[in-house]
User: What shape does this take?
Amino acid sequence: MNALYPLLDYREGDKVEVIYEASMPSKGTVYHWWGYWFRWQELIPGLVIFVVLFQVAKALTNNPTPEALLEQIEYKEEPKRKYIE
Assistant: This one.
């Protein structure tokens, strides 16, 4: 089991809680927020997907179609009633 995690500094003799599946003890990990809840193997792909989706959304909103531009230009806000009957 590899207990070398970024942002964590374990020394020999430190007591830690280890969590593992009984059928696969070799895949055990230190029960800590970084090694258990967050891992580079999961964090990096998640960030890549977020950046790609953000760039797609940015590209779509920065380049509107001519119909959408015309709709925005011709838009007139309807007067709102102060009280509902």
